[in-house]
Amino acid sequence: MNVIPVQNRRRFLRDATLLGGGFGVAPFLRAADPAKKYRTALIGCGWWGKNILKEAIASGSVKVVALCDVGANIREVAAEQVTDLNGDQPKSYNDYREMLEKEKPEIVIIATPDHWHALQTIAAVKAGAHVFVEKPTGHTVNESRAMLHAARDSGRVVQVGLHRRIGPHHVSGMNFLKSGAVGDVGMVRIFAHGGGGREKPSRNTDVPPGMDWDLWCGPAPKRAFNPKLHPGGWRQFLDYGNGQLGDWGVHWLDQVLLWSGEKYPRRVFSTGGRPVAGPAVNSATEQTTDAPDHQVAVYDFDGFTCVWEHRRFAENNAEKHGVGAYFYGTKGTLHIGWRDGWTFHPSDRNAPVVHEDSQLQEPDGHNLKLLWADFMASITEGKKAVAAIEIAHRSSVLPLLGMISLRTGRSLQWDGDREQIVGDPEASKLLSRPYRDGWVYPA
Ligand SMILES: NC(=O)c1ccc[n+]([C@@H]2O[C@H](COP(=O)([O-])OP(=O)(O)OC[C@H]3O[C@@H](n4cnc5c(N)ncnc54)[C@H](O)[C@@H]3O)[C@@H](O)[C@H]2O)c1
User: Fold this and answer.
1) Where do the structural domains in the chain lie, given as residue ranges?
2) What one-character-per-residue DSSP string does 1-39 give?
3) CA–CA separation, 365 vs 359, rounded Å?
4) 54-95, pLDDT tens digit by residue?
5) d(CA 237, CA 243)
6) Do residues 401 and 144 touch, judged by C-beta distance below 8 A?
7) What pLDDT sits at residue 317?
8) Is the CB of 48 within 6 Å of ligand 1?
9) Handedness of CA 156, 414, 271, 190 (dihedral sign)
10) 166 and 386 in contact (C-beta within 8 Å)?
């Protein structure tokens, strides 16, 4: 997302209390054996990691045994919050490898920047843990494949944070589409727009005290520390994230796969750039982001076309919705959005507009409570997780292919069964990337 709200400690506690805190929990959120508390560790204790942990604690199904982050202050704040919520006194770790070895957690939550998801998920399932990892699965396609294979080999549950798969207004919007009420859908437009303009470089600074910046960068290229990068801003730096398409696009591409039942497109083409933000800067003294300030990606599926658009400038009142998906059908257009729920605009102008409000957990507008309950049900009852790694891998591949097309400037033919780009060795190379010395790309 564009704007990363700073997690306010009081708000965290208040919301957790409203949700049931660590004690009074809605019965349907409990694991099958309510007495069982899974030994749980969080890797990446930033904004979103704390949101997930809050829901995990509220479910009553976890004992928080470890918090791992490369920032000592970040770990401290998170530890205090956990103790306030349910009395647990988790151990604090800088390095996830040491944490996995010493604590042997049964559940690991991973909410680090995207360039870490693969290595940490693979290490966690190999250590025997069930994993709740954030989207997109990998920073490159072959990382995501390696996660999928490691998860399958381990037999552990791996749930990915695509909470829109289970969010009530998304589910009912999907049911509305599948009922035929929108008619034959030939085109889908998905988008996430925001404001912005020319980008001024920010000065590099010393690494904040207590932060292991080398381990933050890990397998990715090591940049100088810059407050624009951490926390949260890494999304718009292509060494660590994949811009708006990787961050937001994955949610809406996932909805397109959910609606259509398709597994992959035949062809992907993307274009975009930084005409407004200006050239990317990465010098010894200052940096800008380097992700595109706008981008269009076209996904050519059997039977329909899907177009992604984002723009980080020209916020306006002319376009009604800033985020979401329009499904264009022969009977009208369905918009599924975020806080604005879903709305069907019939082609017959005399027919009534149909609308359903969103149902989200605030302040951050998500459905992690339901996704966590589904994760626990997968562990305790063996049911298939709603955003299992097999599903989320397919959704995550789509933005990553869009980014390869943007980099090469070419349309990609995608063999989704073999997960290979056809007839383009240069683009195929970008399915993986070199790792920094000391780190091994997952096979
Ligand atoms: N599903 C959703 O709707 C949703 C919403 C927001 C964020 N997210 C995802 O959550 C993840 C985290 O996002 P965020 O906004 O909280 O970012 P953030 O930058 O606020 O937090 C990431 C944390 O990871 C830590 N970290 C970095 N390298 C580490 C390492 N090697 N070991 C341990 N900790 C390390 C950082 O110090 C930081 O505290 C991202 O993958 C993001 O895409 C998902």
Assistant:
1) 9-165+368-388, 168-361+393-429
2) ----PPPPHHHHHHHHHHTTTTTS--GGGS-SSTT--EE
3) 8
4) 999 999 999 999 999 999 999 999 999 999 999 999 999 999
5) 7
6) no
7) 86
8) yes
9) negative
10) yes
Look up the pTM and report it.
Answer: 0.93
Structure tokens at 364: 């951050």
**Pairing of β 107-110 and β 130-133:** parallel
Token digits of residue 46: 């930033």
Cis upstream peptide for 434 (omega within 30°): no
Q: How far is the CA of 135 from the centre of ligand 1 (A)?
A: 10
Residue 102 has pLDDT above 50, yes or no: yes
pLDDT tens track for 119-168: 999 999 999 999 999 999 999 999 999 999 999 999 999 999 999 999 99
Asked if 405 and 426 touch (Cβ cutoff 8 Å), the reply is: no
Instruction: Write down the architecture of domain 9-165+368-388 according to CATH.
Output: 3-Layer(aba) Sandwich (3.40)
Which segments of 59-182 does DSSP mark as H helices, in order? 72-86, 96-103, 117-126, 141-154, 168-178
From the CA of 178, how far away is ligand 1's center (Å)?
34
Give the count of beta carbons closer than 10 Å to the beta carbon of residue 381: 9
Structure tokens at 401: 């292919």
Class of domain 168-361+393-429: alpha beta
Which of 4, 7, 48 to mutate to test ligand 1, by most ligand atoms within 8 A of the CB atom?
48
Indicate whether residue 70 lines ligand 1 (CB < 6 A): yes
